[in-house]
Each structure stands twice: as structure tokens, then as C-alpha cells.
UniProtKB/TrEMBL annotation, chains A, B:
Signal sequence residues: 1-26
Protein name: Alpha-rhamnosidase
Residue ranges constituting the Alpha-L-rhamnosidase six-hairpin glycosidase domain according to the UniProt record: 294-627
One of the protein's GO biological processes: carbohydrate metabolic process
Keywords, alphabetical: Signal
């Protein structure tokens, strides 16, 4: 996440243009208006939050899909073709502009050049089509619009000047006619409790670790009620009055029957309480998961770190669902700040770009913009940053090309809410979140928000350039430059050698917090000298309010890693994440304060079991270990170029893989040897060595101060013999 | 529609404010976010257009209801109360901010002051609730929002600064728990054919006149296909290849059964063609209608005019459905230009304000504005004019208060599309409709569009004043003033004594059409002298392209009536509408050209039966006879003041009623006597008399040139003896 120069890659542009012109080659799939299925699905998914059996939806605006969509594509056929048409919704079909009678399920398209239009209405779920012939298939090369604006005058003539905006259709994994998008469900696998404790009218089941899915009751018989109390802890499951989630059901089964709970839940423990003469033979669960392939990996000489990595992976997997959600017990919502970290973790584990795009589309929703994303100012900015990183890691411009107008209206909403100094300050309805931290001031114009806006404006400039909006690009670059200058003019305090937290009533406050300072490090907004001062004045200074959430630990540790403090960060990681493991955590938590004891750890929001014990932002070691220990990161979009800069951080050896669009880069590093297997793209290996390093297949250059670099060719294995510096540089705590 | 000064009536404002504060007194009804049900229902209704059995939806954007709505209201109870809660959608209930477990169907509200919140999600249909207790009932005093923006921080504290915008809930006629809004259907009554002609495998049924509804097949038995060909003419029903609407069904009934067609259709004739061994005992239809009460009436000494009035009424009734639609065969869509005329007719027949409001909401849809209403520039402006008239006729400010933001964004869309001279000129995607007329130029900046924009800006100024947006009001008034000046500076041609049709490339064209000129008459934009010149130079000048559509005849005849040409207009009315009746019309047509013959009358859009024979805009005599013959019109909002200025137009006598918010004004006028029975509000009777008129209960003032005026008190009957002028003033054709 360093301030890399991202420029439009001509090769990628060319490929994109070519793809637009090629005939459809892919297999048929269900398609829709891009972004619409994502909105529809996220509404449904976020509705699955319940609290004590009560529906608990979001408090911001839900948008809707467009209920009426026109799909079309031109085809050139060498022979006539039978084409099957499936649609979700009522529909019509036009061949070369002429409507066919009724709603045909199969049509014959003659040889030659033809256009097929399908127009679909569906209010309940997303208008979608699946078209399948020998060469004519529905895929993302189809064009879609929600307003075709093609009128017919009294003579039967159609409008001759079209202003219709066409986008490429959206898709996911619905690749057969009967895999209906509206019936979208993640896969499930059966799991069983590892221990069952029966009492008179209750049964406590322990599934061994944090899990997620649908409880299934087997051999249910009789008349009566069943209550299921779900617990991420045993204490929660046993607390009928305070368990956060539950199911209460009435049954009247003369014959034995099975029953699956309607809503998936997060739990390790389930306490089943029965009344009446009801009997249940046994209980199992259907574990629900996204089924993504783990591409990234990490192993090292420290078993505790390996365990941290594994539990991070498990935590992240549980929270990677239809979208990247915050936590599986609650909120099960798509929060932009949480999702942003998930994007980054994803680039080092699944590299599943569609989940990133889906999440960004769900978060953005539709115009008009009536509030910040999730109502939170910083979360709006993370949305822009997510796009920056998406392009950097994947090189995919299609998201930007299709959704630039949504980016623009979102940014204009922000710009329209600046104060008289041009700074973002909370207006009524704006939640300034930053972090959960006691007494953290949200008043006035907070430096952290300006910094995020500045980075967002840089992103907008980049995207405007990509879509060829020169005027926009100039404007956004200019705004970013002005704001960046203001950031230092207005917030930098020479005495404190740091950015201060805020300006209130136009005056700098004396308060220094970590937030803006650590972001300014890995955004490269600071000079090297400022970085060094800030490292000591803020990051390693205990008198500055400490960060207690894994959410902001993510960035704090990233900033330290970016400053070469891998040894220090590793120790912190073992303390913090290792601390949770020592308390028996099977997944990482929403928040962890080592000063608390026992059931205090489960409380939050004023409720005894309010805390989520499986929160995506708890999985940040995935990202840190991949990016700052294996040391792999792109330096131009889509890993066309990248660096590998392994750091042991005091470990004897590390090894693992980092996924890229072109395959997985494998890295091994010990104190004496570095091994890298590359993929397409040009890599740069960077490392320090006491002695002159040796590589048989590559050419190593010395860069001074024990630094060495080697350019690596695509799809090649390198072995470097070197000698690591005994004492790695690390910060001393004041 | 004269340029009356509409000002905010303090009494109405006071009543409005009082109503907001009174406890709920009304009976329980289903409520929703205002405008949302209207959008949902109009989508569904407009989907009912089919052509040759093919789904034929609109070509503009369908909007959606908000799928997630929070409803709340505060109550003060003297005793605890049991309250039943029904919802369309999944929901939760909060009492005083605390969620109740599950989705309770009944709650107990203790005595004292309490707040009830119900939050409902529904994607398929509109989130709606029905709440019913002794005093706690759901009605339009409940407040609703689509984003409550009430977050909870880590301590459990909720946001303390709310920026939530609350509107009053919307409702219609769903007044029992089981009258679900999502199941909305208009009432039906059974009707039978007046003649049935059977052939070998076909049966032709004649229902006697144009009608609308669902065909029901009785005693259906056997296996085979049935095709129903609907015809507004016999020729259409008998044309299996060209009938515009049809049903094709396959049956396999061993036992006799009835079958009702899924979609209502417009027809007078139905041709049923069977194949296979299928038998049908008989056929009936379910006539579907809005069931509105006819309050206005008109009778006169000319039976042809009476017949024109009756067929107008029937035509209008058929097209007054969930919304005011254009025509019942096709398009069955809500078109703003058509609807605007229906609003005006409605004020003289049903005075059903909710249908006007519903139609305006359906037309407007939601932000963002991506095109003109129905894609037509003039239709956007008619939407504003509809609001002007709605307020003038009903005095209801609630529509303006609730939907001012939608008016504003619509107007800003228009203002953002002006050319460098500040004039509206068609951009790609803008349909300049004006009228169906051979060779009518739509190029450049058309005077008619500027005139409509000017009136729309005046409306915006008025509405901004009502909602207290002083800055907006000033801006809109200023824009209107500038544009009005431009209209004369840029379009008035002294030589032609008229506004020219357009400016192309910044230069006035020589072309004069009727459109802008006739609107400028009844908007009082012309001086009296200009009106007289225009009357002769344009309205009564045969060398100016004639109007052939009832749509624009509406305004042409209104302009002539506004100039006192009732005798001339009556003759035109008898020629034009009488002409359709002489051809056997049982409802009035989309278009009528006396020069055509036989089946030529049925053709349009290049299709032999493309023309609609029952089009709302064909019913304009309803409006003309009420407003310009009975002569009743409001002069301040909601008929607080009004004029009655009867005009015989050459008839011996006329009589009828005109509905107002306070009741019906009854008028009788012969050549010797005028009788008026008034309602609440202050009326002004205006008439001309050769002799000094006499009224026992009122005080008549002479105004010169044989004009007399008498102020009329509320709820009083007046009889005036007078002597009408023998030769009424009327224009001579050149």
C-alpha cells in the first residue's frame, strides 16, 4: 500500500479492447445489470442479522436493482442456430428489433448478422437471462441498460438519436439454466458436535471451534417447543437470557422428521432446551462456506506464528461469504472499513477478485447518494481506497470503466460537504468512526479524515485518467494536491514531530493520535525524516493513546513493517494474537484487551455477550505475513511488476506463496538462503546481506548499506545464497 | 388555467399544522413510504401492455420502492392498550426504542407517552404496515424514513445528532388487515355480450360498446387450444393476423371448468377460435373499473352535445384506473402529457385528488433523474403544470411539502440541459413530442418548450414559497421572469403577429404553429391586443397547420373558449366529436381525421389496427363544458374563491354540477335565467345581459359593456333573471 505510481498499462488496455470485439467464446451463464445482483444479494444477506430472534436490518438506505432491463448482443452466424432462452422475470425477445410473439423459450436465429434483445421485468429479484445456443451464449459481452429510450413516433419510426448508456452485463457462478441467481446459496457440508452434554430438558453441544451454518434436528417427534441458544462461548450458549442469537420453534410431529433452522448462525456451542413431550434423536449442522480456493500460504520456524496464521485464515474464511462481512455472529453486514481490510487479506490468501468487486458494488449501492457509506465518513473513503488497491493488485480496469459514474457521484457528495476551509468535518448524520477508543475526539476537522480524502482524490484522479475524463482527472489531482499541502500546513506540529489529531473551530488541537500518522507512513506522505520522527514520537511512544482493536492494529503494524520493524511487529503479533489463542480463541475477535479477565472478554456494547469472537479484521496477520515477511507486493497494476523483499523478523526461516493474477509466487527465506519461484511479470528481489550474495541464474546488484537487488524473469526459479544481518533493525521503546 | 395568482392560504396552513398535532382519530389503514406504492403499482400496471401476446414494457427507467422502511409514531395513552400489528414483509417492532423479541403480532402498550417503531423489509412489494388498537392506529400521521441513520457506538450509545428526514406515510383504500396493498385489484362486475355469432370453429362476441376487463370462459371442456382475438372494431377482432391483442391458451379439461384470462384487455368485440375437441359453454367478461363517484354533470338543450358529454365521460372512466392512463388497448401506460389533461377533466368529473397525486408520483419516480419524464421534454413540464393545477383546484399543500425535493431535482435536471442562450433544445435522448403532426419541426429551440418551462419555473417559485425555501423561490421566480422576456424578445414576430415555432442555430424561423400561441393565451402571457391578433392570425387562420389530434384540440379549444368563442367551439365540438359518433364510436379516439374512410380510421403507427379507439385525451369536452360553459373555476387554492361565468355558446340552456373540495356547485343557465347553488368559499358570478338583471338574494353590480357581477356567499342558492345577448361574440374564419 505504498504510494506506488499506478499508470494505465497499454497492453492491458489493448487486451480489453480486443475482448470487446471478439465473438463470444465463453460458456453460457446467467447475466444481469452489473451491480444489481450484488445489491439485491447484500440486502438479503444483511437481513440475516438477528438479535434475540428479532430481525435486525441496517440503519442506512437499502437500494434496489433496476426492475426492468434490456439485454442485447450482436452475433454473426455462419449457419442458422437454435437458441434457448431462460429468464428470471417476465420477458420479451426481439430479433433484429422485431418482437417475437409471447415469451419464446427457444428461437431460431438465421445465418448472417443479427441482434438479439431480451427485455426482462422482475421486482422481487434481479432480472436475469441465460441464453444458450451453439455459439450464441449469454456472457459479460452482452450489453445491458435500464432505459433504452427508444421511442416510436406516430409513423412507426423509432428514435434516431440514441442516448442510451450500455454497460457490460454482470455475472457470478450461475452456469446452468437451473442455477437461478434468485436461489443463490453458498455450499454446505455436514459437521457434528465433538461433545454433547445432556441435562433434564437441555442439551449442550460443542462443535469444537467457532463455526457457522444451519443447525439440523434429526428424528424430531412429539409436540412442544424447542429453543436453541447459540454461543460463541459456552457461557453465552448457557445464558438463555443473554445469548445474542437464538431460535424458538414449535413442533407437532407425529412421525419422526428432520428440521433445518431457517437462518444460519455463528457458534461454537449450542444449547438446546425443549419443553412438552418433544424428542430429538440427534443434532448436526450444515457448515456454510464460500468454497474459495486458498492460494496463499505461510509457514515459519515459530509454531505459535504458524498457529496465528492458521487461525487468521480460518477467521477470514468464516467471514468471506457472499461478501466480505465484519463478523459472523453480528453484524453479518458489509461494512466498508472492515471490508477494506478483507480486500487486502484476500490478495494474500484467495486472490478472489469477484468477491472484492461484489463487496464494493454492494457497499456503493446506487444514486442518489444520501449518506456516507454505512453512514461513516471514513468508510466512504475506504471505498475509494479499495478501488485503488483493486486496480493495483488485479490490473482489472473493467470495474473502473463500468462504475466510474458511481465513484464520481460519491466523491461529489463528499466534496459538497467540506467546511469553509475545504476540510471534511462531521455534519449531522455523519458518523466519524476512526476506531473504538475511549474518549477519542470526533469533533472538528480530524486529520485522519483529510488524509483519507486526499488518498481518495488521488484515486479519483487515477480512475478519471483511465476512463479518459481529462477534465475530471485534472480537477481531482488538483484537489488532492491542495489537500495534501493543507494536511501539513494545518496539522503538522514541529514541536510534537507529528500530525495532530484535529482542528476545532479553525485551530490546531494539541492532541496527537496514531491514526493519521501511521497512514501517512505507508502512503509515503511523510519525508524519510518525518517518518523516523513519527516512528519514535508516535508509533513507539507509550504516552500516545494505545490502539486496542485489531482493526487499527492492522494499520499500526503495517506502518511499523513499512519502517522495517518486522522483529518488533512479530513480537507484538505473538503478544496480541497469541494472547487470544492462550485464552482458547478458535477464531480472532472483534476486540482484545489483555487487561480483561474471564467473561469480561465476551462483553461489548453494554451486553454480556455483545462482542463478536470471529471478526474479519482479526485476521490481519494474513496480510502482514504475506506482504511484509514473504515481502511480495505489486508495483504496477496486476503484478506486471512487483517486488519480493523477504524479512525474517527474527525467525529462522519463512516460506509461502503469494497469489497474483498470473499464478502464485513462491518464497522461501532463511538466514542463509532465499528461494523465489516467479510467475509472469517482472519481479525485483530486494534483500540485505552481510556477505556478497550468489545466484546462479540471476544477476545481483549491490545497492549500498548491505542492500542487494536482482531482477527476476517470469516463471523462473531463483536460489540466492546470502548471509542475513544478525541484528535486524528495530525500534526501541521509549 | 388562467394565470391566477396562487398564494398560500393562511387558514389552510393553520389547519395543516393543527392536523399534525392532533392525536390519531382516523381508522387504521395500510401505510407505506409515500410515493413507493405508487411506483410499485405503476410498474405492475404498465407491464400489462401486451402486443400480440408479447410483454411490452416502457422504454424509460422503472424505479423501485425503498425495500427497507422505518415507521414510527408517538402516542399518549390514558390506559394500557392491546395493539395488533400486521406487516407486508419481514419486520421488527420497537417500543420506546427497545426491540421486542421476534416479530410480534400483538403488543401491549402501557399508559403514558410511548413511541412505536416498526421496521419492514420487502423487496417484492412495498413495505407496509397496518396497526390497530383502541386509539393507536396506522394512518398518515405516522412518520416514515428509508434511512434512520441511528448508529450505536461501542458503549451502546446511539447517535445523538439525527439527520433523518421523516415524511408522512402514504395510504390508499386498504382499510382492513386482509386488504393487502400487494394484492391491489380494482373492482370488477360481470358483463355479457349483446350478440354472439358462431361459425365452425370461431365465435364472435359483441359487447355492445368499448369495454375493458377479463374474458371468462364458462364450461370449458376437452383438449385443445383457444385463441382470443380482441378488437376495438369488428374488423380488428376478425383479423387473426393483425389484432393488436390476443390470448393463446392450451387446455386439457376432462371436467367442465371456468377459466379467466390472466390479463384484462380493451375491446368491444372478441373473436374466439378453437382447435382440437375443445368446447366452451359460454363467454362473459369481468368489467374492471376504478369505481369512482361521478360528481360533475352536464346537460343541455342539444342532444348531440349531451351524447358527446356522455361518451366523453365513459371514455374518461375507462382510462381512469389505478392511474390516469393514455388508452386502454395500448399503451396502458402513464404518460405525463396525457395524464395532465386527465387531471383537468377529473376536476370536472370525479374530483378524485388521490388519483391525481398517485399519477404524479408514478410519473416522477425517484432520483436520480436520468431522462425527461417518459423521455419527453414537454411531458416533464406538464408534470410541473399538474402540480400547479393540483394546488389550485384542491388547495392541498401536503403533496408539495412531501415531494418538493423531487420537484427540485427534476427542475435542476431541466436547467442543466439548457443551451447557451438559456433555452431548452433537444439533446440526444430527449424526445420533443409537442403533437402528432405531419412534418412538425422538432429542431432547435422550440417556442412551445420554452413557454412550458417558463410556466414550470413559475410553479417551482410558488412551491418553494410554500415550503419556505426563500432562496429557491427567488431563483425560480427570477429564471421565469428572464425566460418570459426571452419568449417575446426571441420568438414574437411583429409581421406575423404571433410567436414563431422555433429558433434554429440562434435564428428565428418563419414557421408559425398553433402550440405556443394558444398556450400563451390561456396562461395570460399575451396582452389583450396580442390575444386578439393571435386569435385571427393563428387560431382562426386555416393557413396555419391544423391540429388533428384530440390531444392538442384540447388546448386549441380551450384557448378559443378563453377568448369567448364558445359558439365557435361548440360547432367544432359537434363536428369533431360528433363526427366520431356518426362513425359509430362508443368511446373517443386517439386521433380522428374526417378525411379518412372506413378501416383507415383504425390504422396508426404503420399497423392496420394500431390506433387506440378509447383514449383519455379524447374526453376533453368534459373539461371544456365544465370550465367554459358552466363556467366554474377556482381563483384561489381549493376553491376558497372561484368564479362562475356561464356561457351558452348558442345553446338554449345548460345545466350541471362542478365538484369542489367543499361540495358541488350547481349551475343552470338559459337565455333568461341563471341559477347557482354555491358551496363553502366565496363565488363571483359573471355574466352579460341586455337588460338589467334581477336577483332577490344577491347584489348585482354592473361592470360596463353589458357585464355584471355578483358575489355569492357559501351554501346559498341564487336565481338571476337576465336577458342573454342575442348574438354572442364569435370569431369569423378568414
Amino acid at each position: 500500500m505504498k504510494n506506488m505510481l499506478i499508470k494505465t498499462c497499454p497492453l492491458i488496455l489493448l487486451l480489453f479492447t480486443l475482448c470487446q470485439q471478439l465473438p463470444a467464446q465463453s460458456a453460457a451463464t446467467w447475466i444481469w445489470y452489473p451491480g444489481d445482483f450484488e445489491i439485491w444479494l447484500s440486502n438479503n444477506m444483511q437481513n440475516r442479522r438477528t438479535e434475540r430472534g428479532t430481525f435486525f436490518p441496517v440503519f442506512w438506505k437499502y437500494d434496489s436493482h433496476y426492475p426492468l432491463i434490456d439485454f442485447h448482443r450482436n452475433f454473426i452466424l455462419s449457419a442458422p442456430e437454435e437458441v434457448k432462452i431462460y429468464a428470471e422475470g417476465i420477458y420479451n425477445v426481439k430479433l433484429d428489433g422485431k418482437p417475437l410473439e409471447g415469451a419464446p423459450k427457444q428461437i431460431t436465429v438465421p445465418a448472417g448478422q443479427h441482434r438479439i434483445n431480451v427485455k426482462v421485468f422482475n421486482q422481487a429479484s434481479v432480472p436475469a437471462i441465460y441464453v444458450s445456443g451453439k455459439t450464441i451464449v449469454s456472457d459479460t459481452s452482452w450489453l445491458v441498460t435500464f432505459e433504452d429510450k427508444e421511442w416510436i413516433d406516430e409513423t412507426g419510426k423509432t428514435s434516431d438519436v440514441s442516448a442510451t448508456k450500455w454497460l457490460n452485463a454482470g455475472r457470478w457462478y450461475f452456469n446452468t439454466p437451473d442455477a437461478l441467481p434468485s436461489a443463490c446459496k453458498l455450499p454446505v457440508t455436514v459437521q457434528h458436535a465433538i461433545s454433547v452434554t445432556k441435562n433434564s430438558n437441555s442439551t449442550l453441544m460443542d462443535f469444537g471451534r467457532e463455526t457457522f451454518g444451519f443447525i439440523r434436528l434429526h428424528g424430531l417427534q412429539g409436540t412442544g417447543n424447542i429453543a436453541l441458544y447459540y454461543g460463541e462461548s459456552k457461557e453465552e450458549a448457557l445464558s438463555e437470557k443473554a445469548a445474542e442469537t437464538l431460535d424458538r420453534l414449535s413442533f407437532h410431529h407425529q412421525q419422526k422428521a428432520d428440521s433445518i433452522m431457517p437462518l444460519s448462525k455463528a457458534f461454537r456451542y449450542v444449547n438446546m432446551v425443549t419443553s412438552g413431550d418433544i424428542k430429538v434423536d440427534s443434532v448436526s449442522m450444515l457448515y456454510e462456506h464460500a468454497g474459495l480456493k486458498e492460494r496463499g500460504s505461510f509457514r515459519c520456524s515459530d509454531e505459535e506464528v504458524n498457529r496465528i496464521y492458521d487461525v487468521s485464515k480460518y477467521t477470514f474464511g468464516l467471514n468471506t461469504r457472499e461478501f466480505f462481512i465484519d463478523g459472523i455472529k453480528r453484524d453479518r453486514w458489509v461494512w466498508s472499513g472492515d471490508a477494506y481490510q478483507s480486500y487486502l487479506m484476500n490478495y494474500y490468501l484467495y486472490f478472489d477478485s469477484p468477491t472484492v468487486a461484489r463487496t464494493m458494488l454492494a457497499l456503493r449501492g446506487k444514486d442518489p447518494v444520501t449518506s456516507h457509506i454505512n453512514t461513516i465518513m471514513d468508510y466512504t473513503f475506504y471505498w475509494f481506497l479499495g478501488i485503488y488497491d483493486y486496480y493495483l493488485y488485479t490490473g482489472d480496469q473493467s470495474f473502473i470503466r463500468q462504475f466510474y459514474p458511481r465513484m464520481q457521484t460519491m466523491m461529489e457528495y463528499c466534496l459538497g460537504r467540506r467546511n469553509k476551509d475545504g476540510l471534511m468535518e462531521g455534519l449531522p448524520g455523519d458518523w466519524i468512526f476512526i476506531d473504538w477508543a475511549d474518549g477519542l475526539s470526533k469533533t472538528g476537522a480530524v486529520s485522519f479524515e483529510q488524509l483519507l480524502l486526499c488518498r481518495s482524490l488521488e484515486t479519483m484522479g487515477l480512475c478519471a485518467d483511465i476512463v479518459g475524463e481529462k477534465g475530471d482527472a485534472d480537477r481531482y489531482h488538483q484537489y488532492a494536491a491542495v489537500l495534501k499541502k493543507q494536511l501539513f500546513d494545518l496539522y503538522w506540529n514541529d514541536q510534537q514531530q507529528a500530525l495532530v489529531h484535529s482542528r476545532v473551530n479553525g485551530k490546531q488541537t494539541a492532541n496527537v493520535t496514531r491514526y493519521a500518522n501511521m497512514f501517512a507512513i505507508f502512503y509515503d506522505y511523510f519525508t524519510q525524516q518525518q517518518k523516523e520522527s513519527v516512528k519514535h514520537a508516535v508509533l513507539l511512544n507509550d504516552s500516545i493513546q494505545r490502539i486496542t482493536t485489531p482493526y487499527m492494529r492492522f494499520y499500526e503494524l503495517e506502518a511499523l513493517c513499512a519502517m522495517g520493524e518486522q522483529s518488533y511487529v512479530l513480537k507484538e503479533m505473538k503478544d496480541y494474537w497469541g494472547g487470544m489463542l492462550k485464552l482458547g480463541a478458535t477464531s480472532f475477535w472483534e476486540e482484545y484487551n489483555p487487561a480483561k479477565h474471564g467473561v469480561e472478554h465476551f462483553a461489548m456494547y453494554g451486553r454480556p455477550f455483545g462482542k463478536s469472537l470471529c471478526h474479519a479484521w482479526g485476521a490481519s496477520p494474513l496480510y502482514l505475513l504475506g506482504k511484509y515477511y514473504l515481502g511480495v507486493k505489486p508495483t504496477s497494476p496486476g503484478y506486471a511488476t512487483y517486488t519480493v523483499q523477504p524479512a525474517l523478523g527474527g525467525l529462522k526461516w519463512i516460506e509461502g506463496k503469494v497469489p497474483t493474477p498470473q499464478g502464485d509466487i513462491a518464497v522461501y527465506c532463511s538466514t542463509e538462503e532465499i528461494k523465489v519461484t516467479t510467475v509472469d511479470g517482472t519481479g525485483l528481489l530486494r534483500f540485505r546481506s552481510k556477505t556478497k550474495p550468489v545466484c546462479k541464474t540471476g544477476s545481483i546488484s549491490a545497492k549500498g548499506d548491505n542492500w542487494y537487488e536482482m531482477t527476476m524473469q517470469p516463471a523462473t526459479s531463483y536460489v540466492v545464497a546470502y548471509q542475513s544481518l544478525k541484528e535486524e533493525q528495530h525500534g526501541k521503546r521509549k
